[in-house]
Amino acid sequence: MKGWPGEPDMDYDVLVADGEAAANAGKPITDVIFDFGNVLIYWDPAAVLIPRYSQKTIDEFLDNDISGFYDVNDLMDGGTSTDEAIAIMRIKNFRDSLTGIVPGARVLVNDLKAAGIGVWGLSNWESSLFHVAEEQCDILQQLDGKLVSGFVKLRKPHKEIYEAALNQFGIKADGALFIDDKAMNIVGSNAAGIRGVRFQDPVKLRELLIANGVNIPAVQ
């Protein structure tokens, strides 16, 4: 299976407020919490392999049933050390897997801040590699604050990491909106009372925010 195991079915670019988050549906959005990988910055593990491996080898590497690649990433995000993970699977050239800023992300972050919306980051990321992302992708420095799984030994989609983020940021669930490209993480945010959007299209995200009362410039 290519991609993260256990992903539930969920539409992209729609506001989801199920479970504990249902009580907050329709309330003003005061804070937006962003995932990092493929929401603010591109993370593409295939980019590391392209110069050296055939497409068949790349496809097999990214098939979790064959390689366990995504399972190992989950372990690292939860605090497993790089050395321990390498003992399971050798992963090289992490820097090359970060291929740039997602189009529209920088402008959206700036527009939200200009509108008085709190802008935060909550990401599953292995602690010893996170500095690479910060050095290479300056958009992460624009956030009002961030919580990274590997440093707190918690990870999405578990409810506890969302609660830890709310506490660290000093914000409340009823005004927060969480943006992530993984459906399971939106389910997790809802369990903590936070509305969520499974991200795919930056234009649709901007339109969704505006439709829900966030005062940022519309797409012309």
Task: Give the distance, in angstroms, between the N- and C-terminal Cα atoms.
Answer: 40 Å
Q: If helices are DSSP runs of H or I spanning 4 or more residues, what is the number of helices?
A: 11
Report the major sheet.
Answer: 6 strands, mixed
Structural class: alpha/beta
Radius of gyration: 17 Å
Helix coverage percent? 25-40%
Strand content: 5-15%
- In spatial order, strands of the major sheet run 1-8-7-2-5-6
User: What is the mean pLDDT?
Assistant: 86
Number of strands: 8
Low-confidence stretches: none
Globally, the shape reads: globular
What are the secondary-structure elements, in order, as H or E?
EEEHHHHHEHEHEHHEHEH
Please describe what this structure looks like.
The protein has 220 residues and is α/β, with parallel strands linked by helices. The protein contains eleven helices and eight strands. It has helices spanning 46-49, 55-61, 64-67, 69-77, 82-88, 105-114, 130-136, 149-152, 159-169, 183-191, 202-211, and strands at residues 15-16, 31-34, 41-43, 98-101, 118-123, 145-148, 176-180, 195-198. The strands form two sheets. Strands 1-8-7-2-5-6 form a six-stranded mixed β-sheet. It has a two-stranded antiparallel ribbon with strand order 3-4. Helix 7 (130-136) links the parallel strand 5 (118-123) and strand 6 (145-148). The radius of gyration is 17 Å and the shape is globular.
